[in-house]
Amino acid sequence: MSTKDTNLDPAVELTAVEKLQSFFEKNKNAVLIGTAVIVLLVAGIVYYTAIFMPKAEMEANNAMFDAQYYFEQDSFDLALNSAGGFLEIIEDHGGTKAGNLAHYYAGISYYNLGNFEEAIDHLNAFSTNEDILGSLSLGVLADAQMESGKTDAALANYKKAANFSNNEASAPFLLKKAGIAFEMNGDKKQANTFYAKILKDFPNSQFAQDIEKYIGRTK
């Protein structure tokens, strides 16, 4: 049995090299430009992730201190509008984690000032997967929507808030809040589901102390 020679003929190899060289000569500018673009793109990604974003995050976090202080003192207008306030942080550092968090603080601040439409806008702009903060932000968003007459949207967000997590620090409170909202809207069956879950999953919570009364009236 003979074996097939896998070595290419030198003339064929030379022809292939010549074709490649000819292609490069004809498209030299395009090849060089393409290579330069790739190099610049990679350099840009490295700079953005390793240098620019860490610096931007640090600057944004530093800017939050004063605004958070005013927020904790219930000085919501100053928290929003002072130099370095949440609105300025959103404008100047919108692409950072601190800029995202500033939307949450701004939404809560506007809600406390009675400006429910602005509260809705900022809470809708806020994004997180964190259990407590995520569920609480949805709860306040629902409150603001209810205050604005957006009942259907509010009920949907009360439901999302109640089911966002099983964290004992926030879930029982939000389940009861959702139950009350649905009960007030005439949906006793759905309200009963929320109340019953408090009794089943969080029987030691302070929100379970009188929950049987709520369950009884929505059966």
Short description:
The protein has 219 residues and is an all-alpha fold. The chain is 75% helix and 0% strand.
How is this structure best described in words?
There is one protein chain. With about 220 residues, the protein is an all-alpha fold. About 75% of the residues lie in helices and about 0% in strands. The protein contains 11 helices and no strands. The protein has helices at about 10-25, 30-70, 75-80, 85-90, 95-110, 115-125, 130-145, 150-160, 170-185, 190-200, 210-215. Helix 2 (about 30-70) runs parallel beside helix 5 (about 95-110), helix 7 runs antiparallel to helix 8 and helix 8 (about 150-160) packs antiparallel against helix 9 (about 170-185). The protein is extended and about 85 Å long. The model is unreliable at about 1-5 and about 45-50 (pLDDT under 50). Among the domains are: about 65-125; about 150-219.
The major beta sheet can be summarized as: none
What is the average of the pLDDT values? 82
Give the uncertain stretches in residue-range form: 1-5, 43-48
Q: What gap, in angstroms, lies between the N and C termini?
A: 88 Å
Number of helices: 11
The geometry reads as: extended
**What is the H/E order?**
HHHHHHHHHHH
Q: Which class of secondary structure composition applies to the elements?
A: mainly alpha
> What oligomeric state do these chains adopt?
single chain
